[in-house]
Every structure is written in C-alpha cells, then in structure tokens.
C-alpha cells in the first residue's frame, strides 16, 4: 500500500468515530433540553421499568460525566450520569430506558449479552497484544504475525457481538416506554433519534475494527508473499 493510500486510510478510520461521536453528542444535547411530558427524571423512569420486571435488587446510582451511563451486571447496579439521573428530558428518558434494557437482558440470560461478557478478557488481551505479535511477525516469523491477527480478530468479534446487544436494548427501551406510558406519541420519534444516534458509536467502532483487521490480514499476507 502506498504512502498516499495509508494516509487516506488513516484519515477515514479517524473520521468515522469522530463523526459518530459528533452525531450522538449533537442529538443528545438537542433533546436533553426538551422536557418529557411525564415530568419523570431518568432515575424515576429507570426505577419504574426495573420494578415492572421484578428487578428490585438493581440499584440506581448517579455518576459523573456525560453519556457515561451504563449497567454493571456484576454488581447489579444501573449507573446514570447526573443529567440523566436528575433530568426529565426526552433524551434522559430514552437513555435511562436503554440501560435498563441491558438489565432486562441480564435477567433473561440474553445469549448475545452472555457471549459478549465471555469475550471481554479475550478481547482486552487481544487488542493489547495484537500489535506486538504482528510487528514481531514482520521481523521474525510469519507465525507470530498470524497469532497477532487471531488476537485482534477476537477483539473485532467483541465489537461485532456488541451490535445486536445494543440494538436489542434500544428495542426493549422503546417497548417499555410505550407499554408503561412513560413516553407520549409525539415524543417517540425524538426518543428513537437519541437511541439511533447512540447506536452509531457502536457501528463506527465495529467498522473501524473490521477495517483494521483487514489491514492486518493484508500485512500478514504481504509478509508471507515476500518470504
């Protein structure tokens, strides 16, 4: 691959996540200013859905940061950022419901979620060690390069498995919001925009990971051809 092609490639893989982050932050910042008609805070919305599913043991905690919201399956805690926890916005309602979607997945032993959890240590190791083996493969042995590609493939698999987990949590969120009357008809479109924008970050991460894996595979093949 020529220097020009490399530059174009790196610009692309840098631009994709930046665009996705810009999209989600822009959408969130817009709808976090729009109050929901129920007047419920994100914490109250989350508690309502959790209790509806018998998840009384799942606590809700406030954490700092923006868009730092997440569900911790190990401690059974739903953590919401301050703007979501205290705010009564359409964005907060959607985000809180999405995170509860993960808690429901956990309760129901949703297979992709369990698979993703199982991949965490492998993906972390693979993403941190792949480069070392790939570079070593270019210098010493093609076998080391192949090991590096396999390690990175595990990290890519984690990113790909994350997609159905996140999409499913968003679908669950919309169903719960509508079924429990936590969102009115005119707010549904706005909530979906928030959830769709958030999904872009996961799609972007998966796309970049796949592109990087493809590059590593081409590097490995190129090294073998030279040998």
UniProtKB/TrEMBL annotation:
Keywords: Membrane, Transmembrane, Transmembrane helix. The chain crosses the membrane at residues 6-22, 118-140, 146-165, 194-221. Coiled coil: none annotated. InterPro entries: Zn_peptidase_2. It holds the Pfam family Zn_peptidase_2. It comes from the Bacteria. This is Zinc metallopeptidase. It comes from Pullulanibacillus pueri. The lineage of its organism: Bacteria, Bacillati, Bacillota, Bacilli, Bacillales.
